[in-house]
């Protein structure tokens, strides 16, 4: 099999020798399958993925519980400031709102298997912080807009 690292195989390797790739995935826990004409994907041992899901669920439940208690909320907000240093550009109430949205999105990811919402929450608040970090851009963003800006092309 041609691989660039021990935990990577090509789609051709998987097609030609699925048993060997499956054995490698079992022994390593997962292998990355590269594909020249499509996005890469992982072949993951089911028991490892089940444990990862349980871990995420446990962590999200802890954060959710912390967010419901005053000392936990304070610790959570401190942790958010440490993990996401760009929140220094947000107002205090916005940091709290971001924290609440992040915990809710993590809970949804764990309980409902909706992983994208976590990254959407982070990206949205990071974009807000980026605009607020530039006083001129923030001033322009606060100006009223008028008129029709045309059709919006929505792609999925």
Automatic annotation (TrEMBL):
It comes from the Bacteria. Pfam families: DUF6247. InterPro entries: DUF6247 (IPR046214). This is Prevent-host-death family protein. It comes from Nocardiopsis gilva YIM 90087.
């Amino acid at each position: 099999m041609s691989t660039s690292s021990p935990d990577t195989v090509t789609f051709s390797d998987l097609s030609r020798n699925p048993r060997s790739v499956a054995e490698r995935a079992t022994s390593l826990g997962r292998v990355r399958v590269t594909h020249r004409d499509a996005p890469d994907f992982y072949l993951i041992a089911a028991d490892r993925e089940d444990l990862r899901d349980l871990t995420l669920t446990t962590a999200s439940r802890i954060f959710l519980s912390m967010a419901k208690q005053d000392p936990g909320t304070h610790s959570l907000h401190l942790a958010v400031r440490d993990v996401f240093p760009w929140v220094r550009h947000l107002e205090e109430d916005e940091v709290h709102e971001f924290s609440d949205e992040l915990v809710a999105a993590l809970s949804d990811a764990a309980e409902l298997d909706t992983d994208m919402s976590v990254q959407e929450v982070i990206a949205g608040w990071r974009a807000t912080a980026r605009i607020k970090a530039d006083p001129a851009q923030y001033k322009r963003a606060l100006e009223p807009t008028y008129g029709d800006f045309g059709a919006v092309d929505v792609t999925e």
